[in-house]
Amino acid sequence: MARRLVPAAFNASGIAQRHSVIGDYRPGSGGGPFYDEASGVMLAPSTGARNAVYVQEATPLFVAAGRQALEASGLSAEDITQVVTVSCTGFFAPGPDYMVVRQLGLRPTTGRYHVGFMGCYAAFPALKMAQAFCEADPQANVLVICTELCSLHVNPGDDPDSILSSTVFADGSAAAVVSGQLPRSGQRALRLDAFETTLTPPGEGEKDMAWKIGDQGYEMVLSSYVPDIIETHLHGALGPLLLNLAEEVQASGAEVEHWAVHPGGRAILDKVQGSLGLSEEQMRPSREVLRDYGNMSSATVLFILRELLAQAQPGERACAMAFGPGLTVESGLMTAVMGE
Q1: Which domain holds residue 174?
Q2: HSE (CB half, 13 Å, CA atoms) of 200?
Q3: How far is residue 316's CA from residue 311's CA, in Å, rounded to a whole number?
Q4: Catalytic pick among 88, 120, 134, 146
């Protein structure tokens, strides 16, 4: 069964390429603890061995993404007041928040916070936290960095849930600066207008999207029912954010020009598009990020928002959403602005 399921699942994923920090997969590497190149067999290293790779590889990505976001913002290291790091694929202490402060030369008094083990929707709690800091202090500048090394937890085997998760998850890192100040002249930005979070009804989704730490990496459950659960409850989840959505779902595409839908998989994008009546153009950034990068957990929605930021005109709105364990639906409404 697994031999038939694997090629079918990968061919239907909508993903052309993905990235991984695991060097074993590079042709000519000879393999290593994750993959034996001679035999072509995927191996199952211990959780400790996987986390050791996370410790080695995550910090450079956190720092590089943070540096790029800082440079794009036009702010200096001295201007950053808080750092919020996000990850669910590894642990170490002092953590990535500490390493970012040290290696980017931020002030030692910079506030540090870490959002951990929340999954694909975790960028939203991080952005909400940053927004709260800026509302409390208009001079605040918060650096938010999401880094996920999902490929560390791929496991060989014929379990359908493991195969399904292996077809979509990838490694990636992204960052943003949330500021209480207006953008500089000519600078594009997204104003954070509103956020909402909700859970699907009890008993729906709790066992369909979940994971736990096992002896050989994180054991992911990603059921094929997830797209249907999202489709069933999407209207109610977005209703509080878009007040008119409950009355006229089909009109939402015309009133919100841009959509950043977390591509948990191609089927999820298909269900959201059909449910909300969105056009192919509105779904294009989400599908292109899925095609070019795969599902990078929490970092993915920031990749999509980068695409929207480049194309949205001042005054146009964007709705972003992501889904995670529970099943949790996080969403945000934003407006494109241009510094004067």
Answers
A1: 35-179
A2: 24
A3: 10
A4: 120
For residue 117, which phi and psi values (nearest 5 degrees)?
60, 30
Helix (H, G, I), strand (E, B) or coil at 149: strand
DSSP calls for 34-55: SEETTTTEE----HHHHHHHHH
Nearest to 62 by CA among 18, 14, 115, 131: 115
Q: How far apart are CA 340 and CA 337, in angstroms?
A: 9
What is the total count of domains within the chain?
Answer: 2
Which amino acid is it at 240? P
Contact 223, 264 (CB under 8 A): no
In this prediction the pTM is 0.92
CA atoms within 13 A on the CB side of 296: 27
Q: Mind listing the pLDDT tens digit for each residue in 16-40?
A: 999 999 999 888 888 899 998 888 8
- Between CA 297 and CA 319 the distance in angstroms is 18
Cα gap 42→53, rounded to integer Å:
16
Preceding amide of 94 cis, omega within 30: yes
Q: Among the three residues 179, 204, 236, which one is the final residue of a domain in this structure?
A: 179
Q: Pairing state of beta strands 217-222 and 258-261?
A: unpaired
Q: Which residues contact 231 (CB under 8 A, 6 or more apart)?
A: 271, 272, 274, 275
Q: Which amino acid is at 208?
A: D
120 has catalytic annotation? yes
CA pair distance 31, 29, nearest whole angstrom: 5
Residues 6+ apart with CB under 8 A from 16: 291, 292
What CATH number corresponds to the domain at position 310? 3.40.47.10
Q: What is the pLDDT of residues 193-240, one digit of tens each?
A: 999 999 888 877 777 777 788 898 888 777 776 888 888 878 777 777
Strands (E), 62-216: 82-87, 111-116, 141-149, 171-179, 188-199, 209-214
- 331 and 201 together in one domain: yes
C-beta atoms surrounding 280 within 10 Å: 8
What's the pLDDT at 175? Answer: 98
Q: What share of the chain is helix, strand, coil (3-state, %, to 5)?
A: 40, 25, 35
